[in-house]
Amino acid sequence: MHISDGVLNAPVLVAGFAGTAVLAAATLRKMDLEEIPKVSVITAVFFVASLIKFPVGPTSIHLILNGLVGVVLGWRAFPAILLGLILQAILFGHGGVSVIGVNAIMLGGGALIAYMVWQLRHYVNISKKEIVFGALAGAAGVACSGIVLAVALLTTGEAFLGTVYYVLAVHIPIIIIEAAVVGSSAGFLNRVKPEILAGRVIKSPASS
Amino acid sequence: MKSFSIRQYYVLAFLIAVILLPISRDAYAHKVNMFAYAEGANIFVEGFFSDGKTAKNSVVTVFDSKNTELLKGTTDEQGQFVFPIPQKTSMRIVLNAGMGHQTEYLLSANELTGEEGPNTSEKIENDTGKSDGSSAEDDNAPDHSNNPELNRLIENAVGKAIKPVMRSISEMREERSLANIVGGIGYIFGILGIFFYIKARKETDQSKKDVKGD
């Protein structure tokens, strides 16, 4: 789920870089020293996860895990994904250097949405809500990225409208896979190392 | 937060990397690749994803050196598209596989062989002539170069033989090696390590100033 060089036109690329700069500056504010090792580990996980692929129809898609990055890192997910994408573009030609901005908004933005969905768990009182909201966050991360991808492709012309439906349809399996992976990861982390998960500040009053 | 030692994080990262790497070994990044070459009077284009799957129904657009569109077409089920050489010029062939996946291939004018290319065919003929030259039958070489039918057959045969080689070369160019993955993880820790270092220095400077202030 990376856009290649040469697909999008210049204004969209520039807007992507501008938006990325603003989001990176905003999400990097007041980063604590203790957060940095966690960010580097999760960045590495994100970097490697994109290298596993599943065939879907005429193409294949890889695990994105931006939902998991959002669930674990919170707002720091954006710079983590940005760094991962820069390295993927340089080392593997995933996407392209000129598209790093748009790709960062697509995947990093999805991670931020996933974090917001993850935070909603504080307002619900059900059992195993970490698994449920982890799964929802995983699904939301990919779904939002798919929407951004579709919008980005739309700017290149009406001819892409068919592609847009196709993009959304082809992401349904990966949304399910991501939901399962992120949900079980969040449940597992909550059981083993709950401190590692993001957004534990707002305590739900009724939760045990 | 302090219940975690940095070492624990690194052990975790190492374990995750070790678990994930074998799975990703033959299922690398998904990026569309292509190659194109002239085969007689035609140009042969093939698109494929980095996992080896062919890029079917991909839109192929051909531009000349001045960036004017020459022709447009779609790849078949094998991810292949063949078109006659529109004109003797350098070409930029763009293949769009949809979903934001696109790649391009530059085909320079001297790679085009076709009927109008006596220079290239002569060059090929000279090369083979030289290798045959050791058997001291140079007299035969000019006869061959005057035979257009034979030239065409040789071109076709060489084109067919070279196809898998071309393919593996462009695959090799895109190969994601284990070293690159490990290197990427190293870069992540390195870059964030530098960030950590700068931050830590700033914070110690700050605390020193605070001590002085008191």
Question: How would you explain this protein's 3D organization?
Answer:
The complex is a heterodimer of chains A (208) and B (214). Chain A has helices at 10-27, 35-49, 66-73, 77-92, 100-119, 129-154, 161-192; strands at 53-56, 59-62. Chain A has 7 helices and 2 strands. In chain A, a hairpin with a 2-residue loop joins strand 1 and strand 2 (59-62). A two-stranded antiparallel ribbon of chain A has the order 1-2. Chain A is globular and about 45 Å long. In chain B, 48% of the residues lie in helices and 22% in strands. Chain B has a domain at 32-173: Immunoglobulins (Immunoglobulin-like), CATH 2.60.40.10. Chain B has helices at residues 6-24, 118-133, 140-145, 148-173, 178-213, and strands spanning 32-39, 42-49, 59-64, 69-74, 80-84, 91-98, 101-107. The radius of gyration of chain B is 28 Å and the shape is elongated. The longest helix of chain B has 36 residues, at 178-213. Chain B is an alpha+beta fold. In chain B, strand 3 (59-64) and strand 4 form a beta hairpin. At the A-B interface, helix 2, strand 2, helix 4, helix 6 and helix 7 of A face helix 1, strand 6, strand 7 and helix 5 of B.
SSE layout and pairing:
The complex is a heterodimer of chains A (208) and B (214).
Chain A: H1 10-27, H2 35-49, E1 53-56, E2 59-62, H3 66-73, H4 77-92, H5 100-119, H6 129-154, H7 161-192
Helix pairs in contact in A: 1-4, 1-5, 2-3, 2-4, 3-4, 3-5, 3-6, 3-7, 4-5, 5-6, 6-7
Chain B: H1 6-24, E1 32-39, E2 42-49, E3 59-64, E4 69-74, E5 80-84, E6 91-98, E7 101-107, H2 118-133, H3 140-145, H4 148-173, H5 178-213
Antiparallel strand pairs in B: 1-2, 2-5, 3-4, 3-6, 6-7
